[in-house]
Amino acid sequence: MPGILKVSGEHIVDSTGTPVILRGAGLGGWMNMENFITGYPGQEHQHRAAMLKVLGPEKYNYFFEQFLHQFFTASDARFFRSLGLNCLRIPFNYRHFESPLNPRVLIPSGFHHLDRIISLCSAEGIYVILDLHSLPGGQNPDWHSDNPSNWAGFWEERDYQDRVVWLWEQVAGRYKDNEWVAGYNPVNEPCDAEHTRLLAFYGRIEEAIRKVDPNHILWLDGNTFAADFSAFNKVLPNCVYALHDYSNMGFPAGDRYKGTPEQNDKLERQYLRKAEFMMSHKSPVWNGEFGPVYSPPSEPEATTINQERIALLGQQLKIYDKYKISWSIWTYKDIGVQGMIYTSPESKWISTLKPFLDKKQAIQADAWGYHPNPEVDAIFKPLVEWIKKVAPEVENKYPTTWNTERHVARVVKQCLISECLSMEFAKYFEGMGFEELEEMAKSFSFEKCAQREELNRTLRDHAGI
């Protein structure tokens, strides 16, 4: 057994003091569902509410239990380890453990699938990092925190923060002796506009967890989507600080990657800017998320574009090898946008939902995997310009890494429009019996998924140093 991992200077080490570099992927879309990963519109709690109305309680519970089981099984764990990867980051939504209508009352069944996956991973020699991806009130203004608005209310209300402290006490109490749990990622991609409340909360959550579990590593994201450490001034004990290192060149709206010296230099400078705090404090670095999205085969130049994005990823991995850091690519499995493996186009899931998926892409309902559409742009861009004209302060609105178009898209497309599409999506399941619902869920099983082979070869080539 490796013993519980800990921080020693600039390294993560096992119980013998041997340095360990963790490299793997995030299990996005599983216990924290995301719209682009499985195809629904809007936020997870809206999706689940619509599904409950359409299916009724019995079929709803059956479908989601099947989905959670099929999404990651022993076959996935074996495949993951066959690539040389040794760490799975597991995002989860607080709603699995606590109802907003009954706060601080543990839902014990929330641990069922976490326990199952930790067991599957440990059998293959894979560590797990437990990542609270969605917090009460929303720790950031985006979809992946299951936030129905553009307001990160977590930072504004003490009760939200108290509930998260309570939840981590429950989680840490359960896994405090588990050697295959590499630690706890208490807040994914925080966005604190004041930059001070996050640091205060990290001090509080570190103290609370240590009282229950004094040994496991805490993995602490930087502010503003894990990219900003400008307000950080000290390293907490036995903590690893996490950056997220997405490149705009990996997305449709960014420049295409051609491997020029200037582009490669830009990639390294971007990484070093984010890692400066950790490097100056001689602390380990964890890149908790990165990776491009991929064009579907139906799009013009899809093959060439995807080759460019694999090359971009390879260049990023060379940088991470140079600095010998741990990393976790985003994401392991989805419906073909970004995952290492993805649902087959012939699957029950895709064949049933394709008309809706095409519509959602055309109207730009999702932020991730955005596709240009002249018709939508002709309507939307004048609105953005009008807002900038009548309310110029919008260009300074936090998070300032978002331009005005991104802020407006979040409110109009990804909140208002997407919420109003939730029932339309759910009605594709109307009238399905238990066998059909099981077949839909099995679309995500390893045996029925396709593999993004060039991506996986690239990860295998960089899994070790």
What would a concise description of this structure say?
With 465 residues, this protein is of the alpha/beta class. It has helices spanning 35-38, 44-71, 74-82, 110-123, 158-175, 197-212, 223-226, 261-280, 302-322, 348-362, 374-390, 404-419, 422-426, 434-442, 453-461, and strands at 6-8, 11-13, 23-26, 87-93, 127-134, 181-185, 217-221, 239-244, 285-289, 326-329, 333-334, 341-343, 449-451. It has an eight-stranded parallel barrel. A three-stranded mixed β-sheet has the order 11-12-13.
Shape annotation: globular
Helix count, per DSSP? 15
Strand count, sense and closure of the main sheet? 8 strands, parallel, barrel
Identify low-pLDDT runs: none
Cα-based radius of gyration, to the nearest Å: 21 Å
What is the helix/strand order? Answer: EEEHHHEHEHEHEHEHEHEEEHHHHHEH
In order across it, which strands form the biggest sheet?
3-4-5-6-7-8-9-10
Structure classification: alpha/beta
